[in-house]
Design brief:
The protein is α/β, with parallel strands linked by helices. It has a single domain, classed as TIM Barrel (Alpha-Beta Barrel), CATH 3.20.20. 47% of the residues lie in helices and 13% in strands. The protein has an eight-stranded parallel beta sheet with strand order 4-1-10-9-8-7-6-5. The protein has a two-stranded antiparallel sheet with strand order 2-3. A hairpin with a 2-residue loop joins strand 2 and strand 3. Helix 6 packs parallel to helix 7 and helix 10 packs antiparallel against helix 11. The radius of gyration is 18 Å and the shape is globular. The termini are far apart.
């Protein structure tokens, strides 16, 4: 079973003329590989996946795969129904692993959360990564539930934790069975969580500065905490700026400033406010990448 450690990138989906810009995406994926990123995560929240058709999901997946240089590709397949999630697993069955978000809108109790993940994971023999992001879903996968799934379901191999509840995440790290990893889902939490034993991060910032993020996370993996802490401080303004408006609005503004893709999103998301563009420009200049 593949293990997912280090720095993974939650990839943006570039658009041009209202359609996925696969040329821009291919270039961005190749840049990720060249920068030393460890694995790729297309079709997640950051990729505006709920606004993509099935045909577009396949195009985006194949573009990522064909340019990944052999890196593992984890695809987001989660919905708020068993049938919808299973349909995505079948659609994207060639992927190396599946990232499955907590069911949104439904607000299930923990016993429903457990049965949902157990059921959808049974539909594949490939690794499944839980994704906990209550700010998006309205539901929190509690530590007890995550650990029970980790123990009971062999192909549930990790959790991407973006709850911001550091005590909860530390409880999962402490209680995790052998073979189950915790990944930070918030760039700004990565330093603290990796110090406590998290295996890495699924990063938004690494779209914009893949080399710096790979260097930061790899320093953490090597136990070079002094160097990593300095990098964390330097990167913190970027971590914050990327969420002054809903993700991926600021990030796409940054990518446009870098000339990597159009500043184009799908409704109901809209391009960044001028003040956000100015903030991204200053942040990139301060990091020396613009």
């Amino acid at each position: 079973m593949i293990r997912f450690k280090g720095c993974g990138t939650a990839l943006f989906t570039p658009f041009k003329g209202g359609k996925p810009d696969l040329e821009a995406m291919a270039a961005c994926v190749r840049a990720q590989v060249d920068a030393g990123i460890d694995f790729l995560v297309p079709l997640g929240t950051t990729g505006e996946t709920p606004c993509l058709s099935d045909a577009e999901k396949l195009d985006v997946y194949h573009c990522a795969r064909e340019n990944a240089g052999g890196l593992p590709v984890v695809v987001g397949v989660g919905t708020n129904s068993v049938s919808g999630t299973v349909a995505n697993i079948r659609l994207l069955h060639e992927a190396d692993a599946f990232l499955i978000v907590a069911p949104y809108y439904n607000k299930p109790p923990q016993r429903g959360m457990y049965e949902y993940f157990k059921t959808v994971a049974s539909e594949t023999s490939k690794p499944v990564i839980l994704y906990n992001v209550p700010g998006r879903t309205g539901s929190n996968i509690e530590a007890e539930t995550a650990l029970k799934l980790a123990s009971d379901v062999p192909n549930i191999v990790a959790v991407k934790e973006a709850s911001g509840k550091l005590d909860q995440v530390r409880e999962i790290i402490k209680g995790a069975p052998e073979g189950f990893d915790v990944l930070s889902g918030n760039d700004g939490d990565t330093f603290e969580l990796m110090k406590d034993g998290a295996a890495g991060v699924v990063s938004v910032a690494s779209n914009v500065v893949p080399g710096l993020m790979a260097e930061f996370v790899h320093a953490m993996q090597k136990g070079d905490f002094a160097r990593a802490e300095g990098m964390d401080r330097s990167l913190a303004p970027l971590f914050d700026a990327l969420f002054v408006e809903p993700n991926p609005i600021p990030g796409k503004a940054a990518m446009a400033l870098l000339g990597l893709m159009d500043n184009s999103l799908r409704l109901p998301l809209v391009p960044a406010l001028p003040a956000t563009v100015d903030l991204m420009k200053k942040t990139l200049e301060d990091l020396g990448v613009l």
